[in-house]
Amino acid sequence: MNSRLSNRVNNMATSATLAMAAKARELKEQGNDIIGLSLGEPDFTVPEFVKEAAIQAIKDNYHSYTPVDGYGDLKQAIITKFKRDNNLSYTPSQIVVSTGAKQSLANLAQVLLNEGDEVLLPAPYWVSYSDISKVAGGIPVEISTTIDNDFKVTPQALEAAITPKTKMMIYSSPCNPSGSVYSKDELRALADVLVKYPNIIVVSDEIYEHINYVGGHVSMAAFEDMYDRTVTVNGVSKAFSMTGWRIGYMGAPEYIARACNKMQGQVTSGANCIAQRASIAALENPPSRIQYMVDAFKERRSLILGLLAEIPGIKVNEPDGAFYVFPDISYYFGKTYRGKIINNASDFAIYLLEEAKVATVTGEAFGDPNCIRISYAASDKDIIEAMRRIKEVLE
Length: 395
Ligand code: PMP
Ligand code: GLU
Description:
Bound molecules: 4'-deoxy-4'-aminopyridoxal-5'-phosphate, glutamic acid
Oligomer: single chain
CATH class of the largest domain: Alpha Beta
Radius of gyration: 21 Å
CATH topology of the largest domain: Aspartate Aminotransferase, domain 2
Distance between the termini: 39 Å
Structural class: alpha/beta
Number of helices: 13
Strand order of the largest sheet: 2-8-7-6-5-3-4
Largest sheet: 7 strands, mixed
Strand content: 5-15%
């Protein structure tokens, strides 16, 4: 806290994922043998055809400001992708390209929320949803789920959380951090509740769309009666291993897209031009081009689930998508080590970092204080060694 800083930033939490990754990096630089399973980012390199497009863009002298909401031909590639993969029809004025899906989400909170508006967050939810909402004046309202129900929100729980102040709901499927994938029937059941409350805008974060081991990705906006009040957020970070290239995008009702364009015009002027050119090459390709990454993640999922099953006191469900496991570790609460008590998931994550030298993220940051998140977007070698160490220190 520094009183010279705004209340806005003083009241904001630091991103737990990025903070843990920074801590792990720092410990590593000090010579500690840390295995980082905290940050959710694919460990593959960027596909060659995408790199080539970026190199070509530099050679072709792309250098100037782009249209604020993205190059016209990138928007066209996004429109084609939405139609091809999600059966969603958008026009160019409904598409906004941003500096990562994170900025798409931040834009949405800024243009939709007034002070005191409530934002429904089925928990566990991705770490930044709550602070992105709060900084825009919104009040996050968590809706709890259970591991036995695969961390999926029920229509009853959703309806019970709605008040006259509810303005927005944000969810991800496949979900970060639980890996849960909503089926068409499950989403339809949620939509049946939402259609009764026309003031609620739904933000469907589909950034893990392709990292799905059961198939059948469904977009909320594909339901005709939800299309006009759903914003579909996606990006190239996860599908094409382009996290640092910072390109995300949304398909939205036109008035929302225009508002995001206005907001972005005052804040960033638009996303990086070279990364935008490269994203055209990425999105023009069918998802089969990146199937090799999905296949590898699927094998690693089996590997980590098998190893976790050997550790007593850890309860884990099988995630259907993304590259995280979200085990319930509450069995260890109240246990003591070196005179310190593990009171909660944050203490547990610190324990793993200090004793096993494995970086994970506390579930508290995702709205579930009984769990931790482990990313398996890592090599088999690191996964095996990390689970060996965790097992050893928990014994
Ligand atoms: N949504 C979810 C669920 C995520 O896991 C991430 C990962 N960072 C993002 C949005 C933001 O992605 P990016 O800004 O890299 O496009
Ligand atoms: N989405 C990743 C994660 O959840 C990246 C970190 C971030 O953007 O906060 O770990």
